[in-house]
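Researcher: Going back to the complex we discussed earlier. I've cleaned up the inputs and rechecked each line, so this should be the final set. Can you rerun the prediction on the complete assembly and write out the structure?
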Amino acid sequence: MRVEDMIFISVDDHLVEPPNLFEGRLPARFADGAPRVEHTDNGDDVWVFDGQTIPNIGLNAVAGRPKEEYGVNPTAFDEMRAGCFDVHERVKDMSAGGVLACMCFPSFPSFSGRLFLACDDKELALEVVRAYNDWHIDEWAGAYPGRFIPMALPVLWDPELSAAEVRRVAQKGCHSLTFTENPATLGLPSFHDAHWDPLWRALVDEGTILNVHLGSSGQLTVTAPDAPIDVMITLQPINICQAAADLVWSRVFKEFPDLRVALSEGGTGWIPYFLDRLDRTYDMHRAWTGQDFGDRLPSDVFREHILTCFIADPIGLKLRDDIGVDNMCWEQDYPHSDSSWPRAPEEFARVAAQFGVSDDEADKITHANAMRWYRFDPFAHRPRAQCTVGALRADVPGHDTAIRPMDKGRFADVPTMSLGELAENATA
Amino acid sequence: MRVEDMIFISVDDHLVEPPNLFEGRLPARFADGAPRVEHTDNGDDVWVFDGQTIPNIGLNAVAGRPKEEYGVNPTAFDEMRAGCFDVHERVKDMSAGGVLACMCFPSFPSFSGRLFLACDDKELALEVVRAYNDWHIDEWAGAYPGRFIPMALPVLWDPELSAAEVRRVAQKGCHSLTFTENPATLGLPSFHDAHWDPLWRALVDEGTILNVHLGSSGQLTVTAPDAPIDVMITLQPINICQAAADLVWSRVFKEFPDLRVALSEGGTGWIPYFLDRLDRTYDMHRAWTGQDFGDRLPSDVFREHILTCFIADPIGLKLRDDIGVDNMCWEQDYPHSDSSWPRAPEEFARVAAQFGVSDDEADKITHANAMRWYRFDPFAHRPRAQCTVGALRADVPGHDTAIRPMDKGRFADVPTMSLGELAENATA
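Model: Rerun complete. Updated structure for the full complex:
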């Protein structure tokens, strides 16, 4: 298959929230407490909520920038590519990048929305979560039906309220919930606690997927304070194996056999080893640990419940039969620093050709699996023939995708961010 | 190749220290402070040193026991298989298991000897480390030349003293040092600090390998206090990727190009993914992180410096060309719970046949790589023809290798150890 004829849906992209997100969306008595953007004296745009200040960090909005600039300090809106926060520009960037549809994780609330967990005024926090979800579903994803898989934030502090929110947004067509890869690290009951059962039940009832994004536990793997930042970047995806192990061995899938979980940005090449390790652990230890999966193996449980994805992962494609072709999705990670936008389709096609991926397999990985797992049908909105890389790019002739440096201006003398600074910002 | 004709050297086994280890080995003024074994009122044998009590834990001495018993509480010497602590019995167990030679990690001092780091009397601690090393090299490994790759403990609190100890034991033929996978978690300077340079220099000068065993940082991956113990067991090996990332991105290999490190019990199947991830991180981020490996890639650096090993790892054997056949060793893990003793050679041969491993490749993985990396030549002591699985087993006809339950006696009503108890013991 030629890359022009492929269809790409990304199950892991990111949006930067625009300053007007909450305008007119909160009841009057909560309006003053809504998160808002402030422009600081040194030129940054920061979100402010409940006494916390959240800068946008360099690595989170680098689409269109040269790699030399990836580590610069917090950026203002006018220093970012508009596709980060403006849905109309985003859709043009998607088309120019050959991508039909994508699912966008949040930025300032953190991947799991834990910013709102810390807020003492839970009435306000609940209104903010609902307003955020309405904006994401109605205004961001709603502006271009068939171009976005809508995603909701959870009400982390209350599984019943979370369940109600899952049911509420499902009525609006949203079947994807972002969550944390480990609630225990946020000070909440772990995956092993029945505390979360109301949420799991709502997810199953509504056919909604739980997405656990790397880093959503709030804990980055920092081996040492003086470790080069390359160490943390290298280790980020594979660390999600902790969430996978937690879930496979937990009671969750036993009690909720229809629950589905996506390991967002977790990569795939490590999974065959991990599945072997699960099964060997079961073989060697179940006699005394008491684990019992009946006539199945833990690797079967993984494949029944867990969706994986990758940006560019040659070993994952090579080992697709050991992972399960039905369990693999593609992702673009726009506008983060691991993305190959606007040439991501070409990157996929090159590696797929190297490992003899068939057209049918490529279709599953690039879009069909995402459509099935997320109950998302872009072809209801746009004829399939108009959804290919070639057709989408033809939609936006001359759209500027050049990689060019920003006007460094105030950054001229600013060193790239240190590991400590990045970790501090990322976990703020 | 028939399994009877294969030759096996294990680069990761374990010994349980016998009670008389320190007898007559310490200067008189330190003799009273030497670690000693005490038999407790409830029937356990424990090591006592410097106010600390270290039990032997169930999973560490289960060779010959049925899997149902793996989780029982601390065991006394008379409840363990003698091969755990008696070198004469160990050699018989090795022969009956078809294993020519092995390298034995310590038990009560922890894999890295961090028990002695905590001792305030550093004069005493230094004498204890030296006495331990002399015992290991002269009495344990020395009793059967050609059957053990000797291994020394470091002087963790002082890189100059560690360097001196490396040079001292090298004179006795020991070219293997156990260490921690992350000194920073022990409160010491990290791999990124020049603090350790005297030790690295001594290792390079003496051609001695640094071995970082899973769990040697003193931190087990416990996702949550109520996580089933299966989670921790599953995640143990792959966590060593943190040490690999730390070392590859550090200044250590740049400054000491002849230094060699073994990821002990770390498995191999995850490594091809990890190497891809290293190279992609380099490609995407070096422009701003400043990493520079000249005309090489970080994956080249990994293969030049790092030895891997596995117990039973189908994906690792399948991907041996992506790992590097010259970088892979076999291990048995006797007497721990992940071991397949006494049928480990058969397990290897079965998987090797499944993935078409050639005789030459099998020779490298089962013994030739270990001989080369560790400068160990068992054939100088025993004709090669006498070193095969078949020849070794013929040496000990009728040696009892049956898997049988111990006399449960005092354990009749004891539940298997919880995750919390195991973690507490393992990190004591």
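Model: Worth noting: DSSP finds 17 helices and ten strands in chain A.
Researcher: Good, that matches what I expected from the previous run.
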